[in-house]
Write a structure and sequence with these properties.
alpha+beta, three-stranded mixed beta sheet, 191 residues, 3 strands
Amino acid sequence: FGKWDSGLEQLPDQHGYELYQSCKKEKSVQEAGEQLSHAVRIPGESDPVRGLISAETSRPAEQFECMRVASAVEDYLAHPSGDDDRPFYIFASCTEPHVPWRCPSEYAHRYDPREISAWPTFRDAFEGRPQSYLTEYNGHNYCHPKLDWPEMAQAIAHCYGVISIVDDALGRMLDALEGQGLLDSTMVVFA
């Protein structure tokens, strides 16, 4: 359930999956009529989408991919197909918490940016460090943007909120396993 990053030439059924369901139905901010507030952007980036690091969004948490994946897993476990005694494998994947961190309002205020301290290497120039420290995504280094700490703390608060959504989605999947009496006999790997 969720994202499949192996291309359209190699779909899950070609890898032994009997059932697969993409839960990626996300529209662009403009298409969804999504309202963003408290946005943190890459300084100097004129493109409002590419330059977005984080923001509070009007989109409800239930519309996030991880919550749609949780719903699909809950439904699958509630309505098993075939032999109920047969072992099963569920691969549940989502894009959250990748940047940009668009955090729904109900999660955005869980973490106060004023209570988030700058980490010791926040102002590090990364000289002499491995190239991976300087890796850019979409033309920007989201891990080391040129922001002052209050802006970065706001972005980190949004990130923490999005991580909380993923945590809640995982909790729903674990609750579904428990509700079917499967939790104690199921290996769960979260990576």
